[in-house]
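Discussion board: Methods & Data

I've been asked by a reviewer to show the raw model output for two of the constructs in my manuscript, not just the figures. I'm not sure how much to include, so I'm pasting the format here to get opinions. Each protein appears as its amino acid sequence followed by a line of discrete structure tokens. Is this the kind of thing reviewers expect to see in a supplement, or should I convert it first? Here is construct A:
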Amino acid sequence: MPILNVERSEADGGEVELEVTEGAPLPSWGAGAALSVVGTPRPRVEGPEKVTGRARYAYDIRLPGQL
């Protein structure tokens, strides 16, 4: 399954433009792969945006040609 890369830029007037490109698929993990992130606590970096109402959700994004 290909990976989709999304690049965000702001146009004149502050409107956000998104460009989606297709990237190479990620390699599979081996049977003995050491997973250093799974099962460990991670900081929630989006917390301040959610609390202040500045967080952007999928509903907030409008792509060209979208109904």
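Construct B, same format:
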Amino acid sequence: MTFEEPTWGLVQPGELARIAVVSPHFDDGVLGAAHLLSTYAASVVVTVFGGWPPAYPSEPTSWDAAGGFRAGDDVVAVRRQEDDAALALVEARPVRLPFADHQYLSPAEQTKPDQVAPALEEALLGLAPTAVFLPMGLANPDHVVTHEAGLRVREDHQELSWFCYEDHGYKHLPGLLAWRIAKLFRSGLWPTPAVVPVEPDMARKRQAIACYRSQVLPLQRDHALSERLDANVPEQFWRLAPPPRGWEALTDLV
């Protein structure tokens, strides 16, 4: 078996000139990529599930209730305001797609990747990014849909640099990150940890996350938010690309 010399994950000059981070929900881009966003000013966060539902449930969902919402509150309007404040702190700007969070929809109404992909493609083409950062797409149905829709867009736009960031909180659920990496690997699209230069600023990241006031309590309840922040859990970015020539045979060994 012949192997080419690996690049060891280095990012080439110019790849990060214009960054688009694709976020399933209003907080995910900041939770998983705040250091990236604050390092590269004028980056854009494209929130896929940034739209209003056909109707809110008569009683708030468990997640919304934990965040302090009551019946009749316009949750999306509040969360958009929170997102504006958080993105301003990391010097990023928002683009929002009109899809509704799965928690408000019946099983028959759930959004599919083939619905998201055209809208995501249009948004990204309008931004003309040099690099796109998708979520790994773990556990939460909206995260999975966002990831899979992003991969579909990637198929037609391989001239861009494509990366994944690790979904904050969900990446610590047993086996889920390994499952996604294995699934990508077997598809012939090898995820490789990338050496993305960032300037970590945990104080700034904490300030940005705190802007999501209606999310902090449920994030603490379900995802041990304060423990993760106290541990300074690093942001890791994975390049999405085929294997170097000569390495494909490794896929057959697993």
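Answer (T.O., handling editor elsewhere):
This is acceptable in a supplement if you add a one-line summary per construct. For B, something like: DSSP finds nine helices and seven strands in the chain.
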